[in-house]
Amino acid sequence: MNTEGPVRLAVCEAPVVMTPGDEGWQALAADARAVKADMFLLNEMPFGPWLCARAEPSFDDLLSVQRLHEQGIGHYGDLGASVVFGSHPTFEEGSSVNEGFVWEGGPGTSPVHTKQFFPNEEGWHETQWFEGGQRQFEIAEVGGLKVAFLICTDIMFNEWARHYGRSGADLIVVPRATPVSTLHRWRTAVQMAAVVSGCYVASSNRAGEEQGIDFGGLGWIVDPSGVVIAETSADELVVAADIYRSVSAHAKREYPCYVEDLPVSEDELS
User: Fold this and answer.
1) Are residues 135 and 92 in contact, defined by beta-carbon separation less than 8 angstroms?
2) Tens digit of pLDDT for each residue in 192-204?
3) Host domain of residue 102
């Protein structure tokens, strides 16, 4: 990977349910190889059924989906990128967490962040399945970029996008699992995260109907000014764009990133 010039990043709208190596995965991997990206962002917990559709958690089902994601590691090379980002269910010190990871070609992945904000409503009973864990809002240096995670609902809390920008991130990746009915909300959230952080923001989603949920697809890459520079569709399931560290660095010196935060006292926080 050329760390001096642009880094080519791809996002996707993935089949609603995949297992490692199945027909859906093979089709996604073929599309991914065609765009010749350096880095590829998978959607939130891409393998197996969407666990959180059910309000009653099942330990056996959780383990089954964890195992699918462990098997998936051996297939990430199929995507043709030297770096893969995504999220998977795992255990951290005995807690069930949704972990953002980086894969760089080896037999395992490197953990970066665990999802911190969880909905609890029909179709998204995430508080029943997951906890926040201990690995929060860290930045990974990968392929010449400083990369941060906001997993799905995390993106709704702009203070963390701003925190990442102030901490020097170039790229925020947002694997998600979101429905058709709220796509306008997620697009706005991704764009605002870019504007307030001065970072590129990229997001991938699953697409299709499962367990009564109509997942909306649409993967985006947004530049640091908030402009969507790449967007997937039903006809183009994988798209790519170039990421420039110099563009992100410039955006952090511009409005609104340069505006100072208000001082907050401990009394105001209590």
Assistant:
1) yes
2) 999 999 999 999 9
3) 7-259
